[in-house]
Amino acid sequence: NFLDTLIVSIKNHYEKFEIKEAELKKIDLANLAKKSKFASNHIAHLKDDLEALAISKKKTMISKDWLKAGDIRKVDGFRQEDRLQYDSLVDAFIESFDHDIQRLQRVETQDDVFKVDKIVNQLPLFAVILGSEKTDAFQKFWDDIWNSFFRSTKSRLTFAASGPEQLDINGSISFLQAARDIFSRGLNPVAPTDATQDPQCTFSLPFPDTKVKELITKLDSLLSHLHVNTSEIDASWKRYIDEFDCTKEGQSYGDTLRFISQLKRQATAIRACDEYGIQNKFPTADRAIQKLCQTASSQIAALDSLKPEDGVTVWHNLEQIFGAGRTIIDDDALQDVLLQVMSKPKSDAQKWVAKMEHDIAEKSAKFYGDARNQDCQAQRKSALLEVTSCMESHERLQMKLVQLKMRPNTGAELPLVTQLKTNISKETDQTIQRLSEQCNVEEIAESIHGTYITATELVNETVSAHAESCIGKVLDAVEKQKRKNKFGLQDLGAELEARHDVGGQIVLIMPQFVDMNLLAFQEMTTGKTPHSTVDEVSRLNKLPEAQKVELHKVVKQVFAKYEAILKKIKFHFDLDLIVADVKKHHTQGSNLPDTIGGVFAIWSLLSKTERGPTLRRPLSAQVVAIVRLLNLDKPRENSRSQKVFSVLQSWLLSKKPDKTLINASHLAQIKTGQGKSVVLGVLATVLSMVGFNVDCVCYSAYLSERDHHEFEAVFTLFGVSHMVTYGTFQQL
Q1: Which of 70, 217, 441, 718 is surrounded by the fewest CB atoms within 10 Å?
Q2: Read out DSSP for 233-263?
Q3: Cα–Cα distance for residue pair 265/270, rounded to 1 Å
Q4: Contact residues for 633 (Cβ-Cβ < 8 A; gap 6+)
């Protein structure tokens, strides 16, 4: 039983590759056999089996598969107990390894690369396990395999980079990718972290690291060209080519151009790719550029003439492609193709924008001419709506050109406005020419009315101002030619007011008519005293006698103050001193009639300095209107009227009023030519002087601006400009 147990133990040690332990127990077994004949006879028939098992396990131990996963201590035990057989087996192992190295002097396939990878991973391990005396052999194997692998990889890299049509792209990619991974690991070996892992490689690469890094860089560059990710290419084609859009603002085409460059670089690899089937369906750079051109042309053809600014966006985006193409695409041939193919849609977009500018100008001129010659107000306004639409389109187009820097921002007016002004000037020149050749007043009135009403209803300040300037030239020519044509401004004004819708408005606003009317009204009112005006107003309004008396008194006081200031200044005056005096008496609580008279005096003096020698004087109707609007004509005898007067005075003097007594509307009717603008201006000045914010409103934005300009100097002198606002009813 003891012998059988010992034999079983020896076999178990061999099975576990515990050679040292097995050999020691074999010695014990041999010693027993020498001492006992029974033992010798008992183990005689087992001796050969044990020897065969020992040889088998020793051979198995000195093999790649066992050494790769074996225990270095067991190998050391084998070497210590049976050195002769150990050396014999190791020499045979090294010889077989040498055969493997020799077969890989030329690494040609991906399988060869995997074999190299396996060998370079095994060599350091085997060198450590099999002992230092074998290190030189394994070092030689290491150097040989790396040198042959380096040469083979460089050769395959050069061949793949040449890009022949028959190149096996897939084979090259697999080979070079695997080679790249091996060289990368060779530069950065992983050290074991504990004793159970493979020992750390002690061998260095047989060439400088810089050479390996240079090779890896070349491999990466070429692999990026050769490797075709069809899913990624298809997604990029859809995003950058199929969905190309040059109608949207803020587009960046850098990624699109980089994708086209990628297609050119990978052209050979793409042709060798089985996924794309028929050759003419390959995603090539030329096809991509042609597709962009077709898409751009289609989008240009689909542009809406009502949105001309969209054409500017397309033009700008195509210019962006040109600029980016010169920077991003480094292939000269591909760059030439891009610029040549895309030049047509870029040129078409530029021409479309130019055509829109021309068409809008022509359309605007046509409709403006139609409106100019149209007597029917509805049809005239319809034509002017078309002109306005043209101007809005033109303005959007010009703004987009400046915004996208396709045209410099000169600050000049819109070309379309300039053209309309030019057309008006031509009409004016023709009218003045007719005056020099003799014509009738009806013809000139018709021309002036047409120019004015068309420009005014267009609601464009620049055009309206130019139209009025041109009308002024005609009026000046009328006055110069009045003897020849036998009519002057007075006849023309009468004709305008009698036969044309806005003739009275033209007479009201044109300076030539204003000056003429001023002199005429002042002549008319020379014998019309404030007393007679009050009588007329009292009669028309059926005022009680007491109120009439009070109205006489207050109006007389206003004119007295007015005349006192004018007499005091003679021909030398200081407006600032006069204004200071008026404001001083006002703040000291002087009555309102003096304040009104003072404001009228300042207005008159300003009219003399600004308009020339003619001194504009207040009309009685203007003074009466202001007095009545401020409720200053209420009799003092009546206790309630007296209270109302006191409340109004305290209200205007910023004391605490009884608001229920002043919360009423006051209306005054002013006849044409009697000076509504003056009434509003003086009244606004008086009310703002006592602390109220005043809104002066009118149906016409132009007339409102004109009236404000007339009294702007008065407001400034009294320091109330910030409290007075002029505008339209809509703005209010």
Answers
A1: 217
A2: HHHHIIIIIIT--SSSTT---HHHHHHHHHH
A3: 10
A4: 543, 547, 550, 551, 554, 627
From the CB of residue 166, how many other CB atoms can be counted at a distance below 10 Å? 5
Q: What is the C-alpha to C-alpha distance for residues 177 and 162, in angstroms, rounded to an integer?
A: 17
Question: Mean of the per-residue pLDDT values for the chain?
Answer: 81
499-525 burial, b for 16+ CB within 10 Å, e for fewer?
ebebbbbbbbbbebbeebbbeebeeeb
What distance in Å separates the CA atoms of residue 489 and residue 152, rounded to the nearest whole number? 106
Which helix (H) or strand (E) element contains residue 729? none
Could you give phi then psi for residue 696, rounded to 5 degrees?
A: -110, 120
Closest-CA residue to 293 (of 222, 251, 349): 349
Written as one letter, the residue type at 17 is F
- CA-nearest of 167, 69, 157, 64 to 113 is 157
Q: What is the DSSP letter of 194?
A: S
Contact predicate 619/524, CB 8 Å: no
- Phi then psi dihedrals of residue 698, to 5 deg: -150, 160
Tokens of 732: 């209010």
The tens digit of pLDDT for each residue in 173-228 reads 677 777 888 888 777 765 444 434 445 546 788 888 888 888 888 877 776 666 66
- Taking alpha carbons only, the member of 450, 481, 484 closest to residue 467 is 450
The pLDDT value given to residue 302: 94
Residues whose CB is less than 8 angstroms from the CB of residue 250 and which lie 6 or more positions away in sequence, other chains included: none
239-276 confidence digits (pLDDT tens): 999 999 999 988 889 999 998 988 887 776 666 666 66
pTM of the model: 0.50
What are 723's two structure tokens? 């409290």
Summarize the confidence of residues 128-148 as an average pLDDT: 82
Rg (CA), the chain: 54
CB environment 417-436: b (16+ within 10 A), e (fewer): bebbbebbeebbeebbebbe
662 to 133, 623, 641, 668, 669: CA distances (angstroms): 123, 21, 12, 17, 20
Give 352-368 as a DSSP string. Answer: HHHHHHHHHHHHHHHHH
Tell me the range of 32-36, 103-107, 164-168, 656-660 where mean pLDDT is highest: 103-107
Q: Which residue has the higher pLDDT, 414 or 311?
A: 311
The more confidently predicted of residues 419 and 67 is 419
SS3 of residue 198 by DSSP: coil
Segment 695-722 mean pLDDT: 90
Please give the structure tokens belonging to residue 455.
Answer: 């420009």
534-560 pLDDT per residue, tens: 998 889 888 899 989 999 999 999 988
Helix 415-436 vs helix 441-458: crossing angle, to nearest 10: 170
